Amino acid sequence: MIQISIADIRGRQKNGDIPEQVKKMLSSRVQGRFGRKAALESSAAELLLIRALCGRVSGQDSAAARQSSRISVPLHIAERRDGKPYLADYPDLHYNLSHSGGMVLCALGDEEVGADVQIWQPDRIGLAEKICTAEERQALRAAENPVRAFFDLWTAKEAYLKYLGTGIRRRMNSFRVEKDMVIDRDGPPEEIHIRQLALVRGFSAAVCAKNARTAEMEAVYTDHPEDFRSSGLPCASLERVVSLTR
């Protein structure tokens, strides 16, 4: 099972200071980003991970269960040889984080997972040559909403690369994604499961895993912003922000 958590912190970005009590909860990986433009988003992403991990360890997702779960913070986050981060104290769990434009995404599960969210930036559609195969560029030209189609495709491909752990070392236009399939121009098709998430207009997001079919990717959208109040990073009521299926 893949658990997906999403937070919308766009309304908090102007207040970019991260409270001291939050800083103490965050890993050295995130603390190294303090002072940078996306530090607030990185902090919120790891808070989502801590929240999801507490629920996973306790076996429940209630606020009381999370508070009673015994996990140590800051999290001990290490890196594999390929650079993909992992939870050193929980080797059987896998996670991936992403953030863009104030939207924050966390995926946590018992298998390798990749996740990506992107804010729509119409001027970046010019990158289609580098991101899309010839077949995908043709489909974009015929799309009713080319910008949305482009970023849906971008997030699907990025989630797949983050699932692999290769990142940008693999050219995105060297393979194409179709329903539950990745087709590499230099190799055989690979069965994979990519779930597109429906966010507020102006954002695309996707989660990728090998074995967990999209129906097994459980989207957990909290409607309890008070969970973040003590950290100084309240999230929006996410059931108003996202819908479960597209």
Low-pLDDT regions? 64-68, 222-246
Mean pLDDT level = 79
CATH topology: Ribosomal Protein L22, Chain A
Shape: globular
Order of the strands making up the biggest sheet:
4-5-1-12
The helicity comes to 25-40%
* Secondary structural class: alpha+beta
What are the secondary-structure elements, in order, as H or E?
EHHHHEEEEEHHHEEEEEEH
CATH architecture: Alpha-Beta Complex
- Kindly provide the radius of gyration, computed on alpha-carbon positions and rounded to a whole number of angstroms: 18 Å
Query: How many structural units, i.e. domains?
Result: 1
Compute the separation of the termini in Å: 19 Å
Count the helices. How many? 8
Q: Find the CATH superfamily.
A: 4'-phosphopantetheinyl transferase domain
- Beta-strand proportion: 15-25%
Q: In the CATH hierarchy, what is the class?
A: Alpha Beta
Please tally the β strands and state the result: 12
Strand count, sense and barrel status of the largest sheet are: 4 strands, mixed
Which features does this protein show?
8 helices, four-stranded mixed sheet, Ribosomal Protein L22, Chain A, three-stranded antiparallel sheet, 246 residues, alpha+beta
